[in-house]
């Protein structure tokens, strides 16, 4: 029964029009994707923050792993904001995003650049540089959420 359901779900999704290539089956799928991306960002950032604050021992290899992950996952959410049907207020995404898309995108760009700088710092041995890059990176979250995310 379950198998039949899965098969018919796959078949149904195959017959839907394709959004953004074949990454998203529909707008709800795109919204789920961007939320999942933000969760990946959160998980990797929290562990890094704990190491930087000394809540858990600083482990350079783990710092690098987290910073590498952040450099990748911070590129993910943005395309899912412009999928047809997902380009309006939904969930916690405020309508202001689409009224100020240029500002929103430039914040997203800066965020990704700061993630790359954090990744570069994490490759080195200077913990103070990692700390500074992390602080700069972390500022992006609240700055964007205050304007564009309902809480
Ligand atoms: C350029 C804007 C922007 C930046 C930068 C940003 N966010 Fe967000 N974030 C959003 C928006 C918009 C949403 C709401 C998405 C939705 O509900 O569709 C969101 C949602 C979230 C969510 C909730 C996801 C869910 O499951 O509903 C988490 C967690 C999150 N962000 C964490 C972070 C963290 C941590 C950072 C910084 C390291 C960050 N975000 C940086 C815009 C941003």
From TrEMBL:
InterPro entries: Cyt_c/b562, Cyt_c_II, Cyt_c_prime
Family annotation (PROSITE patterns): CYTCII
Domain of life from the UniProt record: Bacteria
Transport found in the keyword field: yes
The entry's keywords: Electron transport, Heme, Iron, Metal-binding, Signal, Transport
GO CC term (a single one): periplasmic space
Post-translational modification, as annotated: Binds 1 heme group per subunit.
GO annotation terms (biological process): electron transport chain
N-terminal signal peptide: 1-20
Binding-site residues for heme c, renumbered to this chain: 141, 144-145
UniProt name for this protein: Cytochrome c
């Amino acid at each position: 029964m379950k198998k039949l359901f899965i098969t018919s779900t796959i078949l149904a999704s195959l017959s839907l029009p394709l959004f953004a290539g074949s990454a998203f089956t529909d707008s709800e799928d795109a919204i789920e994707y961007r939320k999942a991306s933000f969760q990946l960002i959160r998980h990797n950032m929290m562990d890094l923050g704990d190491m930087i604050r000394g809540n858990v021992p600083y482990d350079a290899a783990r710092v690098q792993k987290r910073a590498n992950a952040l450099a990748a996952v911070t590129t993910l959410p943005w395309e899912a904001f412009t999928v047809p049907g997902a380009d309006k207020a939904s969930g916690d995404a405020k309508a202001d995003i689409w009224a100020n898309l240029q500002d929103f995108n430039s914040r997203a760009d800066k965020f990704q650049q700061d993630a790359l700088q954090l990744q570069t710092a994490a490759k080195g041995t200077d913990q103070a540089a990692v700390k500074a890059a992390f602080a700069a990176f972390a500022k992006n979250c609240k700055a964007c959420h205050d304007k564009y995310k309902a809480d």
